[in-house]
Design brief:
- The protein is an alpha/beta fold.
- The chain is elongated and about 50 Å long.
- The chain has 2 domains: 2-69 and 172-205, Periplasmic binding protein-like II (D-Maltodextrin-Binding Protein, domain 2, 3-Layer(aba) Sandwich), CATH 3.40.190.10; 71-168, Periplasmic binding protein-like II (D-Maltodextrin-Binding Protein, domain 2).
- It has helices at 11-26, 37-45, 91-96, 106-118, 130-138, 185-195, 201-205, and strands spanning 2-4, 33-34, 52-55, 63-71, 73-78, 88-89, 99-101, 123-124, 143-147, 159-164, 172-179.
- Strand 1, helix 1 (11-26) and strand 2 form a beta-alpha-beta unit.
- It has 7 helices and 11 strands.
- Helix content is 33%, strand content 24%.
- One of its GO terms (molecular function) is DNA binding.
- This is LysR substrate-binding domain-containing protein.
- Keywords: DNA-binding, Transcription, Transcription regulation.
- It comes from Eggerthella guodeyinii.
């Protein structure tokens, strides 16, 4: 199985926890590795991976994509940003400060950008180096939209994360993805258990 995310602090530990939980559910040997969405999909099609765990839905005729949970939208900011004083970020904050999407989250960035632009937020999607992002956060008091999982805070050293206020936020789907018609019995057990409403695998692993 592949976890389709960019590298983050202690990602190897997260992969081991996901593998252990999946193994308990399926009673089969499970390994989990980190892979960007593009490499994950390629690995799925060539048989390297039996399944992908993604943040954001995959819409393609060659795969089956089943939502099994959701995580909130998070916002990275400098540690001295005015929004740090509150527990949650509001829509008005996104309209007040410059906003950037996170690289490596292609599966949901398009939905986030489309949704918030309709709400009057000007979001930039231009790739930046780590130094440019650091200046964006510190000098421009910028905000970077990402998955609201605290463990991913290590992606932007020196930054802190706050969640979007629920009424202003956008849930991000956690999905299990397989090649069309290639679901092994063990995978069906995993998919069925999670889709039946038990605690989402990724949400538990990232705590």
């Amino acid at each position: 199985m592949a976890l389709c995310l960019p590298p983050f602090y202690n990602f190897d530990q997260t992969c081991r926890r996901i593998a252990a939980m999946a193994q308990r559910i399926t009673n089969a040997s499970v390994t989990v590795s980190l892979a960007p969405s593009g490499k994950g999909l390629n690995g799925l099609h060539v048989g390297r991976f039996d399944a992908l765990l993604t943040l954001g839905a995959v819409s393609h005729p060659s795969v089956d994509c089943v939502p099994v949970g959701a995580v909130p939208l998070g916002v990275f900011m400098a540690k001295d940003h005015p929004c740090v004083a509150r527990d949650e970020v509001r829509l008005d904050d996104l309209k007040t400060y410059p906003v950037l999407t996170s690289e490596g989250f292609e599966l949901f960035n398009d939905v986030v950008v489309s949704t918030y632009r309709k709400r009057g937020v000007d979001i930039a999607c231009s790739p930046m180096t780590s130094q440019e992002i650091d200046r964006f956060l510190r000098e421009r008091l910028g905000l970077v939209l990402a998955v609201g999982i605290p463990a991913l805070g290590g992606m932007l050293p020196g930054a802190t994360m706050r969640l979007m206020r629920p009424e202003d936020g956008l849930p991000i789907a956690i999905c299990l993805v397989t090649a069309k018609g290639a679901k092994r019995p063990e995978y069906r057990a995993l998919e069925g258990t999670l889709a039946s409403g038990l605690k989402a695998l990724a949400g538990e692993a990232f705590e």
